[in-house]
Structure formats: C-alpha cells, structure tokens
Amino acid sequence: MRAGLAVTVSRRLRALAALVGIGALGIGVWAAGVWAADRPDAGAQAEFLASIPLVAEDGATLQGISGVAILSGGARFLALSDHAALFVGEIRRDSRGVPRRLGPVARVALRGMQGQTLYKMQGDSEGLALGRRGAIWISFEGKHRIARYDLARGTALSARAEVPPPPQVTEFGENSGMEALALAPDGALWTMSETPHQSVFVIWRHAAGRWTRAGAIARDGAFMAVGADFGPDGRLYLLERAFWGPLGFVSRLRRFAPADLAGGAPQMGQVLMTSVLGQYDNLEGLAVWRDGAGRLRASMVSDDNFRSFQRAQLVEYRLPD
Predict the structure, then answer these.
(1) How many domains, in total, are found in the chain?
(2) Which domain holds residue 247?
(3) What is the structure's pLDDT at 44?
(4) pTM of the entire structure?
(5) Is residue 2, in this structure, part of any structural domain at all?
(6) CB neighbour class for 320 (10 Å; exposed up to 12, middle 13-18, buried from 19)
(7) Which InterPro entries does the entry link to (predicted)?
C-alpha cells in the first residue's frame, strides 16, 4: 500500500525537534515508551546485521519494492516492485555473510495471462512467494488476485495461472488487499488482508482449488499486515507496519507455530523485533532463510513509493531459533 506524501521521517523530525527544543534524544525516549509493550519476548531478541540501500551495481535504485525472496544461501535475491516488475540480482556480502551492497540486477516485466501489459489497478503487485520448480506466486491489489509465474530467462514473464481472492479481501478496497503472501511447506498458499477484520487478521489457505480458513492473528495496536513467509523451521513469520504520518513508520516482526493457529482463537505469537519510530522506511517485503552457519535470518525490504525523500532499503536480522 502507498503510504502517502507525509513520510519525511527522521530527518525532518530531528529538524523539528531542534526548533522546538525537544531534541532527538527526547523523541527517541518517547518513541520507545509508546511501544514498550511490544518489546521482544525474553530471550527472543533478533540481532541487527545490516541496512543497505537497494541500489544496483550500475547505480539504479530499485523502487516500489514490496516483496523479496533470498536464494543461493544469501548470494542472490528476487525483489518485487509494485509496478508489475521483478528484479533478479546478487547481494555482495562480507566474510561474515553480512550484506554490504548489491551486485548486478536485471529487471523482468510481469505480464497478464495473454502476455498483455499490466496497467494501474491490474499491475499493483504486492506479495511474493516462491514455489517448487521455479514457480513464483504474486498477489495483486486493485484487481485482487494471485497469479503464478514460472521464473525463466528473459525480460518479461506472462502469468501461467490465476487464483481468485479469498472471501473478505475485496471488502477492504483496492489498496488494502493481500500484501502478505506465503507458501507453506505442504505447498498451500497462505494470505491475509492488510486490514484486519473485526480486530483480527484472518488467515486464508488455498489448496486443491479452494480457500479455507487456516487461523487468525490478533491485531495489536496500529500495526497492519504487509509481509509474510514460512521459514525453514516451518513457522509462519509476519511483518507488520504502523504508519504515524510525518513521524514515519514502525515495523514489527512476529512468528507463529501453525499448530497454534489451527486452534481457532486469535494468536499473538512471538515478537522478534520492533523498530524505533523512523528507524527504517516503509518495510513491506519479508524473506526468512538459513545462512551458511545454519542460523535463521530475516531479510526485509522497503517500498520508497517512487519518491526521492523515502528510502529503498534491504534490512537484515539474525533470528533466534
């Protein structure tokens, strides 16, 4: 979802604080107090590794990024733009596996079922999930649907199949649909609306040609569901975003055991990370994977909404098992 023009975030906030005599330290303390209840569970603190610009080797910025997948043990990535495009590129890492910059990146246009260009409401691509044998599942807002693409060489991909949205998704309008999309270990698609329904995020599961309810996640505060992934540990990870106008964004990462979600009652899950207000930009995409040492990592990407005052970022954390 495009979050609006008011996202001048930290730089303007610090300038404003200096003018009124509050100071950046005071604002930091205030922000920490607002989200004190959302601190990670004891012993579950995610470890920050790096934040780098989403800038390719040739200097081009990857704009409008709403989804991400990490491949080849962290050496390669797929990044989904919300303008019906997929970026395929490399990540340059240091000897500890920490990302330092992007390598070469290629852009691939996403087309419709008949190979047609996707404009405006048809081309608002938001969620990304990797399937088996090179299949890529992408959720769209505007004209709500999930489309399957087969990753191949070339500058354009045509959709191979489409799945209609689950119940309730279309109730929230063209810009509050399926931003969170994940593929379960059994091959089923899991998704939910960005906007909660009656204070819960209803999780929908698609398998054997039909949608069923897989569980529910309790809404907590102003957070909205914007990214999801199943980790190699079989748990569901949810990236959430709260938007506070000119103050910027707060991002949070929670995880859930599928067995707990199957119980029916809305789940709070385990909070792994909550950012400070304005620490990152508009984080929307999430990939959970294991590095060469077997440790869990979460890679998140921000959508700069094609605006010069926002930041396109790759943010990475090491997660507790």
Answers:
(1) 1
(2) 9-319
(3) 66
(4) 0.88
(5) no
(6) middle
(7) Phytase-like_dom, UCP031900, WD40/YVTN_repeat-like_dom_sf
Lowest mean pLDDT among 142-151, 162-171, 246-255: 162-171
What residue type is 266 in one-letter code? P
Residue 126 scores a pLDDT above 90: yes
Assess whether pLDDT exceeds 90 at residue 231.
yes
If one counts every other C-beta atom within 10 angstroms of the C-beta of residue 25, the result is 9
Q: Where are the alpha helices (DSSP H) in 234-318?
A: 258-261
| Position 119 in a domain | yes
Report the SS3 class of residue 259. helix
What phi and psi values does residue 36 have, to the nearest 5 degrees?
-60, -35
Q: For the chain, give percent helix, strand, coil, nearest 5.
A: 15, 45, 40
100 is a domain residue: yes
- 201 exposure class (CB count in 10 Å sphere: 0-12, 13-18, 19+): buried
Place of tokens 């709070």: 268
Judge whether 196 lies within some domain.
Answer: yes
